[in-house]
From TrEMBL:
GO terms for biological process: cell wall modification; pectin catabolic process. The lineage of its organism: Eukaryota, Fungi, Dikarya, Ascomycota, Pezizomycotina. SUPFAM superfamilies: Pectin lyase-like. It comes from Tuber borchii. It is an enzyme of class 3 (hydrolase). This is Pectinesterase.
Length: 337
C-alpha cells in the first residue's frame, strides 16, 4: 500500500485547487498588474486604477500578495474587476492582499471620503482583497468615530471573498445595488450602514469586535426602497465578553429595513435583538426588521423587541429573494450564490 507523505498530500491539494479553478494566482489575460514587491507593473493599486481608460470597456486589475497602503477610488464608466491573488477564491481567510489606510471621517471631510475603498462605478467586481480602515481600535479615540473601509455607490457591484475591517461604520452602502458573497465584515458600531443603498449579503461572516450594533440601516421614507437582506450569514464575536451583547440593528432613519434569514446567530445577539436610535429619538415606529429561520441560542425568542417581526417562508424567499431584493441577478458571480 502506498502512503503519501504530508508534503505529497499538500502538493496534491495544490494541484486539485488549481485543477478546480478555485485559485487565481496569475494575471488574467489583458489584466493590469500590481505588485508591491516587484518593479514590473504598478506598485500601488490606485496607480493601476488611474491608468485605466475612462471609457465603457471592461478592465481587470490583478494584485499580487502584499500590503498596500492608501485609498483606492474607482470612478470610471466601464466595468472594472479588482482581483487579488488567491489560491481559493471562495475562502476570504486565505486572502493574501491587504489594502489598508487609517483615516477618520472628521479629518477626511465626510464618511465616504474616509473610506479605504470608494466605489462610484457600476458593474464592479472585487475579489479576494482584505480592505481595512485601521483608525478605530475600540475604547479610546476609536470608540465613537466614523472610519470606513468601504463606501459603495453604483449599480450591480459585487464583493466576493473580500474582508472589510474597521470599528465604526465599516461598510457604507451609500447608494445603488450590491451583493456580498463569502465576505467577512468586522466592526462594533453601526458597522453596516446606509440610507439609499440596497444590499444582499450571502454566506458571509459578521464579526462584532465590541458591544454595539451590526446594522444602522437608514431608509428615510416609504417613497423609495433601500435595505439589507442577510442570508446564510454567521454572527461571531472577536473579543471576549461581548457574547449576547450585540444588537442586530438600530434605525438611522425611521424606515430602517433589514431582514436576517437562514443564519447562525450563535451566542452573539442580545435578547431584545434590535434597539432604538437613541432614547430621545427612538425612530422605531415604522421600521421593518424581520427574522426568518435563523438558528443559535440568540435567534428569535420571546424577549425580542416589539418592533421586530418574524416572517414566513413565502415572504422570506419571495419578496426577499436575491431578485426580489436587488431587482435582477444576472450580474452576480454564480460561484457565490
Ligand atoms: C478569549 O479567552 C480565551 C480564554 O482565556 C482565550 O483562549 C481566547 O484566545 C480569547 N479570545 C479572544 C478573541 O480574545
Ligand atoms: C420619524 O418619526 C418620528 C416619530 O414618528 C417623527 O417625529 C419624525 O418627524 C420622523 N422623522 C422624519 C425625518 O420623518
Amino acid at each position: 500500500m502506498k502512503v503519501l507523505s504530508l508534503i505529497q498530500l499538500l502538493a496534491l491539494e495544490t494541484i486539485i485547487v488549481v485543477a478546480n479553478g478555485l485559485g487565481v494566482t496569475e494575471p488574467p489575460k489583458g489584466a493590469v498588474v500590481v505588485n508591491v514587491n516587484s518593479n514590473s507593473g504598478y506598485k500601488s493599486i490606485q496607480d493601476a486604477v488611474s491608468s485605466l481608460p475612462d471609457d465603457t470597456s471592461s478592465q481587470t486589475i490583478f494584485i499580487y500578495p502584499g500590503t498596500y497602503h492608501g485609498q483606492v477610488v474607482l470612478k470610471r464608466k466601464g466595468p472594472t474587476t479588482l482581483q487579488g491573488y488567491t489560491e481559493d477564491i471562495k475562502n476570504q481567510g486565505a486572502n493574501k492582499v491587504l489594502l489598508t489606510n487609517s483615516l477618520v471621517a472628521s479629518a477626511a471631510g465626510s464618511n465616504t471620503k474616509s473610506a479605504t475603498l470608494q466605489v462610484y462605478s457600476d458593474d464592479t467586481k472585487v475579489y479576494n482583497i482584505n480592505i481595512e480602515n485601521s483608525y478605530g481600535t475600540g475604547g479610546g479615540r476609536g470608540a465613537q468615530a466614523q472610519a470606513l473601509a468601504l463606501s459603495q455607490s453604483g449599480l450591480r457591484n459585487g464583493y466576493y471573498g473580500v474582508g472589510f475591517l474597521s470599528y465604526q461604520d465599516t461598510v457604507y452602502t451609500a447608494s445603488g445595488t450590491s451583493y456580498f458573497g463569502s465576505t467577512y465584515i468586522q466592526g462594533a458600531v453601526d458597522y453596516i450602514f446606509g440610507m439609499k443603498g440596497i444590499a444582499y449579503f450571502y454566506n458571509s461572516v459578521l464579526a462584532s469586535s465590541s458591544y454595539g450594533f451590526i446594522t444602522a440601516q437608514g431608509r428615510e421614507s416609504s417613497d423609495y426602497f433601500a435595505g439589507y437582506v442577510f442570508d446564510n450569514v454567521k454572527l461571531i464575536t472577536v473579543v471576549n465578553g461581548t457574547d449576547n451583547g450585540v444588537f442586530l440593528g438600530r434605525p438611522w432613519r425611521n424606515h430602517s429595513t433589514v431582514v436576517f434569514k437562514n443564519s447562525d446567530f450563535g451566542n452573539v445577539v442580545k435578547l431584545a435583538g434590535w434597539t432604538t436610535w437613541t432614547t430621545d429619538s427612538p425612530q422605531t415606529d415604522a421600521v421593518y426588521w424581520a427574522e426568518y429561520n435563523n438558528r443559535g441560542a440568540s435567534a428569535w425568542n420571546p424577549s425580542r423587541a416589539s418592533f421586530a417581526r418574524q416572517i414566513g417562508k413565502d415572504e422570506a424567499e419571495g419578496k426577499w429573494s436575491v431578485v426580489g431584493t436587488l431587482g435582477s441577478d444576472g450580474w452576480i458571480d454564480s460561484r457565490f450564490r
